[in-house]
Specification:
The chain has 247 residues and is α/β, with parallel strands linked by helices. 42% of the residues lie in helices and 15% in strands.
Length: 247
């Protein structure tokens, strides 16, 4: 293939991907499978809900089913030879080291808490790469952690009162000095009001697919040993912003 050299394709087939969370991770894993990744660990204890259907790879017939199990079947539809380990439960701190040992790149989309933080920081101490993505507007914020980056604990300094994913979302955008695209600035107040009133952040399927495209490309760059933006810096690509800048 012109775009991905054959020697890199061979490496892609051998790299072990761990998806700690199969909601946001669902679109990423599907694109990874279409790109040639062959080894997956899928971790999730949640069931597919109606609210997931606008941005995750699941469909109506998946409702009520475990996300990791449903996602494994979808990957098999793409490549029946894929090697998939399913962990259909919410992992705890005792599971972290085993998960790290079985993976090369970890996509961490777990709910905020001790496991979310420790998975990231223990993994980078073992020399693994950890990718933490967020959907924002028509794009994303993606943080790459590795042995040379800051830790998750570093960027969560001052976050003792965080109690939810929404608190984490707000804190990270502030601690990373996130500069939102121009169209999003007047909407930030509405977004944070939604966080306070509804308990969840508004998300678009467009952002989820952007996350998938950027993260799979980032994983290829990691395999190629190319220089990447690492924590505390972040990647931010927004489709609406790109279009507005070019019209």
């Amino acid at each position: 293939m012109v775009y991905i050299p054959f020697n890199i394709q061979d490496k892609i087939k051998k790299v072990r991907l761990a998806f700690a969370g199969c909601g946001v991770g669902s679109n990423i894993s599907i694109l990874a499978a279409r790109t040639g990744f062959n080894n997956f660990i899928l971790v999730d204890g949640d069931k597919v809900a109606v609210s997931n259907l606008n941005r995750q790879t699941f469909i109506k017939s998946d409702l009520g089913k475990n996300k990791a199990i449903s996602l494994s079947k979808k990957i098999k539809y793409i490549n029946e030879k894929s090697k998939i380990k399913v962990i259909a439960k919410r992992i705890n701190t005792k599971d972290i080291d085993t998960l790290i040992a079985c993976s090369d790149i970890i996509i961490n989309t777990l709910d905020y808490g001790r496991v979310f933080v420790e998975l990231t920081d223990r993994a980078i101490k073992k020399g693994k790469s950890v990718i933490v993505p967020f959907n924002v507007g028509f794009g994303n914020v993606i943080i790459l952690f590795n042995k040379n980056s800051s830790t998750m604990k570093d960027i969560l300094v001052g976050s003792k009162k965080l109690g939810s994913n929404e608190d984490l979302y707000r804190h990270l955008l502030n601690s990373l000095h996130f500069k939102p695209p121009r169209y999003l600035v007047p909407k930030l107040k509405q977004i944070f009001m939604a966080l306070d009133k509804r308990g969840f952040s508004p998300q678009l399927g467009i952002a989820s697919y952007m996350n998938a495209a950027v993260i799979v490309t980032l994983m290829i760059r990691i395999i190629q040993n190319k220089k990447n933006i690492i924590s505390p810096k972040y990647l931010h690509i927004d489709v609406m912003n790109i279009i507005e800048q070019n019209v």
